[in-house]
Amino acid sequence: MTHLGSVVLTLNAGSSSLKFAVFALANGGEPSGLASGEIEGIGATAQGSVTTAAGEKSALTFDPSLRRVDHHAAMSAILGWLRQAGYDASVAAVGHRIVHGGADYAEPVLIDDAALAKLKALIPLAPLHQPHNVAGVEAAMKAFPSIPQVACFDTAFHRGQSFIDDTYALPRSFYDEGVRRYGFHGLSYEFITRALRKIAPRIASQDVIIAHLGNGASMCAVHDGRAVASTMGFTALDGLAMGTRCGQLDPGVVLYLMTEKKMSADAISDLLWKNSGLKGMSGLSQDMRELEASSSPAAREAIAYFVSRIRRELAGLAAAVDGAEGIVFTAGIGEHSWKVREAALNGMEWMGIHLDAEANRAHAQIISAKHSPTIVFVIPTNEELMIAEHTMRTAHVAD
Known about the structure:
Elements: E1 7-13, E2 17-24, E3 32-40, E4 47-52, E5 57-59, H1 71-85, E6 91-98, E7 109-110, H2 113-121, H3 130-143, E8 149-153, H4 163-166, H5 172-177, H6 186-199, H7 201-204, E9 207-213, E10 217-223, E11 226-230, H8 251-259, H9 265-274, H10 277-282, H11 288-293, H12 297-320, E12 326-330, H13 331-336, H14 338-345, H15 357-361, E13 375-378, H16 383-394
Parallel strand pairs: 1-6, 6-8, 9-12, 12-13
Antiparallel strand pairs: 1-2, 2-3, 3-4, 4-5, 7-8, 9-10, 10-11
């Protein structure tokens, strides 16, 4: 089967998963999704599937001789599906979600050897994501050696923040060396700000707080679509509690773990990145759906802590922009958990937030009451579409 026209392949590589999507390049318009898929279990016995825009789902196949599937083998499985679907010869560029772009990257870039070296140098700042982002890039470069590869950064959206919102109270030399607040989830925030301009252009041009609540969670205050302040900082550990990450933590705790508990840097890293957050507090799961269904007191307390941090950050971000005309919930928990939204917003009338409980439970696009001075939205995010658009523009590819 042969498909005419160019396509963009987007990749979002994690430690044990690889998400991908294929977009057709529209002439003068936004790319249209053709298919999306995910491979899980990388590093072990992987399995994957792909679903077309028409809803047809099929399994991905892997080399049966492999005892373990790495990112290169996962890329080979994707390439096999592309060939079978007739897209392999049409791939014009590959776009990658890169979590950390450091201080240098404020926009997407073509990946060459120098850029790849910089991405690797940033691994210590995002140890949970960056090594696997890089592995995905290297696998794609091997699979498509003559096709442009584009890095799209989660930190780029925040690079316009002021010094005050970018710095820590450390000697200025550390800031100059790159120890600063970078912010993350920028591709999601960029999509939401653009979507809001279509849904509510007056609100979008003013002060808005966006809550990206998923396994990774953060919040960001924006003014007229530009980042002002974010809950995440130097790494993607800061701010809200997350699926397995601790969120805001007194740095003295780390010193205590080192000096009194004699924990190594690696052990502390595993604790804070992989075994804390909802998973650590509940002792049950990092999945909000499981926690909400559980009768465990620890599960209820984990949810309560998660919500309490949302409320504190909401108030703090509102202060950063002198009050917000709009609030947006997005990502897995933000889009699907009416209970978290309700708990986060109840009693916030002093901020001008009046929740419509019925609309919230129905997952309506607007969940605030009609008389609410602050409008609250639920908008699904689409980071893959942002990657495709950035890739199309940066690689100068068109239908």
